[in-house]
Specification:
single chain, alpha+beta, six-stranded mixed sheet, five-stranded antiparallel sheet, 49% helix, globular
Length: 701
């Protein structure tokens, strides 16, 4: 079995030298938005220091022919990198750079050299065509018109969700930032390519690298270094103590790495780099090794901060005061985690005995517990009000920065500044990393007034905050609940919306005023087109009625623009009051300011993956009512036509009308069909709707 290993930059990996295929026995693409956004954030941070390579791990490949390889390990990274490159290509306006980015995804071919045009990465059979059509072949626009019902597999749903979130993140960057990022990605992000000509051998390599401890986790490395300086009599005891502290954190490598990364930030006040092991060893452990006090590090530093991490993960299972538990539970509503080092610091400095192995902040279940009955006094609780003040301020800035889409690097900087000021003993209101400025307040208000399409998690969180503010207390939540629209997506055949104009419907469809929290799944209203059945279904379960803004719907027997406008104003007011951002530094009521005035003080929103309507494209002069569109499927001998209507819909030749190109394509084909923007073309010149939609985004950017 011949084995070769080479470290190559990404620009040398996505070339004619490699054709990657994901075999059918591999698992599907499973990365979620938080995974790919973490990768984007890490790479963007690294790109700020050009000249420093970023190592992205290894690929394990089986050679099938001269340049064709089966991927045994590395699928998730290859697919995610392809998505990132596709987004960069879609946002780039320099034709040369667009072609270069495109060539990383699809081999353009060269007849003279006998190189055929084909994608550089081929997914499993079930997802290969979808990935090529909607990611590799410059058709990203088509995915913005898709929902989960348009997608055949979980992998396709993950791909679409990740495209949208990555697009929203990268579209916020300046063009120069995107180009710098792309250059870094191609030239300085490296992979170790491990190849063999034997499938069994590849699996053995995979087992050795992943099942037998290589590469070691940060905890393994730090434990070995920390205990290396101990006397033989202490070695076994402190090795066991380390395991007792770290093992309860779980075995997820990303979680362990995140914990030690935040611990490094807390102890050093230094920005994170991509060299966690080197930095932690040098900046944190080495001083203890030099003074022979590593036992002190394990007992007095590692133990309390690991316990704080566990409290943050499961606050509801602790004996801490209800206000502290609720504060941590509110912070856990966020997908971003840069608040955690500040919360860890606050807990460790509020409970002196968190590192004591004989006490536990968790509720003890069962009489056999070796630990004594726990009290706050035994935990060494002190200055509880300062802890509450820190958690309240931390939730406020986390919410506002989430709403304003503050970048990962900036959020880390705020956390670093907050811990530094906390160590100095500053009053909470003087801590830089926990301050909210007038620009933050104005930006949050503008965002609250806008469309929230494509960001269901954020809508749900905002509605939780509004409902809890109205209730005056934290609310018990159903195990499963969703933020659902009061109006249906299509009102054409709904008698209860006969008085609505399409413009009014499009305006309110994705705003907070049209949303309510409801127990159960997100698709429970899909088949209900009339208002009263939708409302009654929302109110059917008692757990839905525990949300005051949802329960209010029982007083409205009709859905009108006035009703939604009132709900919008009330919801925004409640959120603003929850976060305490109603007044600026001059005590001016920002909620009383015209939206246009607030927008003048904020930067123009970057184009994102929001849904673009047919009506908007018509109003922009890019489509004309009466135009004919065609969808050809020559291999199946099928052809469908659609006509653009004056009310912003597509009418099939059977007379049925649909509000989106995807809905029209699905109806024409008699089943599920995603990518309606990509299949419909102008009869007059063959131009795809996806190209027209992209023109609209560029025009309104």
């Amino acid at each position: 079995m011949a084995i070769k290993a080479n470290e190559l930059p990404l620009g040398k990996v996505f070339t004619p030298d490699f054709r990657f295929t994901i075999p059918s026995f591999q698992r599907a693409y499973i990365w979620k938005p938080e995974n790919i956004l973490q990768l984007v954030g890490d790479l963007k941070d690294a790109s700020a220091t050009p000249g420093t390579p970023y190592f992205l791990g290894s690929l394990i490949l089986v050679r099938e022919s001269e340049n064709r390889y089966m991927v045994i390990d590395g699928q998730q990274r290859l697919v995610s990198l392809s998505i990132i490159i596709a987004v960069l290509r879609d946002l780039e306006q320099d034709p040369d750079l667009m072609r270069q980015l495109d060539a990383l995804l699809v081999e353009p071919g060269d007849k003279l050299r006998g190189i055929i045009n084909e994608p550089r990465l081929t997914l499993r059979e079930r997802d290969a065509a979808f990935f090529r059509e909607h990611v590799q072949e410059d058709n990203l626009e088509s995915v913005f018109d898709m929902n989960d019902d348009d997608l055949a597999t979980a992998a396709q749903r993950n791909i679409v969700h990740n495209i949208k979130k990555t697009y929203d993140e990268i579209s916020n960057w300046r063009p120069s930032e995107r180009q710098r990022f792309a250059q870094y990605l191609v030239n300085e992000v490296t992979l170790v390519i491990v190849t063999t000509d034997d499938l069994d051998g590849a699996h053995r390599i995979f087992d050795v690298m992943n099942m037998r401890g290589l590469p070691l986790t940060p905890s393994d490395v730090f434990k070995a270094r920390a205990t290396s300086g101990l006397a033989a009599a202490e070695l076994d005891a402190y090795a066991a103590r380390w395991d007792d502290i770290v093992d309860p954190l779980g075995d997820d490598p990303q979680t362990i790495e995140e914990f030690f990364s935040y611990l490094h930030l807390i102890l050093t006040h230094q920005p994170a780099t991509d060299k966690l092991i080197e930095d932690f060893l040098a900046d944190v452990l080495q001083p203890y090794l030099n003074t022979g006090t590593t036992a002190s590090f394990i007992n007095d530093v590692l133990a309390p901060y690991a316990m704080a991490w566990r409290i943050i993960d499961r606050p509801g299972e602790t004996i801490l005061p209800p206000e502290v538990r609720h504060g941590l539970e509110a912070l856990n509503d966020y997908r971003i985690h840069e608040w955690k080092p500040v919360a860890m610091w606050a807990l460790v400095h509020s409970y002196r005995e968190l590192g004591n192995p004989d006490v536990s902040p968790f509720v003890q279940r069962g009489a056999r517990s070796a630990r004594r009955t726990m009290t706050l006094e035994a935990l060494g609780a002190h200055d509880g009000q300062r802890l509450l003040d820190i958690l309240k301020a931390l939730e406020q800035v986390t919410g506002i920065r989430t709403l304003n889409r503050t970048g990962t690097l900036e959020r880390r900087g705020f956390a670093n500044a907050a811990v530094r000021d906390l160590d100095k003993g500053y009053l909470v209101e003087r801590i830089n990393g926990l301050r909210v400025g007038d620009a933050d307040r104005e930006g949050a208000l503008v965002r609250l007034h806008g469309e929230m399409q494509g960001d269901g998690d954020l809508v749900r969180l905002l509605l939780i905050r509004a409902n809890e503010q109205l209730a005056g207390a934290p609310l018990p939540r159903p195990r499963r609940f969703s933020a659902l629209p009061i109006m249906p997506l299509d009102i054409e055949r709904a008698a209860s919306f006969a008085d609505w104009t399409q413009d009014n419907h499009d305006f309110w469809m994705y705003r907070l005023g049209n949303m309510a929290l409801v127990q159960g799944p997100g698709d429970q209203l899909d088949r209900l087109g009339e208002y009263l059945p939708r409302r009654d279904r929302m109110l059917l379960r008692a757990d839905s009625q525990r949300f005051p803004l949802t329960k209010e719907l029982e007083h409205f027997d009709a859905c009108t623009p006035t009703m939604l406008e009132r709900r919008q104003e009330e919801t925004i007011r409640l959120i603003v009051e929850y976060w305490g951002i109603r007044y600026d530094a001059n005590n001016k009521d920002l909620t009383a300011q015209p939206l246009a005035e607030l927008q003048q003080g904020t930067s123009k929103a970057a184009r994102g993956s929001r849904r673009v309507t047919i009506r908007q494209v018509i109003q922009a002069g890019l489509l004309t009512p009466g135009e004919r569109l065609v969808w050809d499927r020559p291999r199946k001998g099928e052809r469908w036509y659609a006509t653009v209507t004056e009310n912003g819909r597509l009418r099939l030749d059977d007379g049925s009308e649909y509000p989106t190109p995807t809905a029209a394509a699905r109806a024409a084909a008699g089943g599920r069909r995603g990518g309606g923007l990509d299949v419909w073309k102008r009869v007059s010149n063959g131009q795809k709707l996806s190209d027209i939609w992209k023109q609209f985004r560029l025009k309104t950017q």
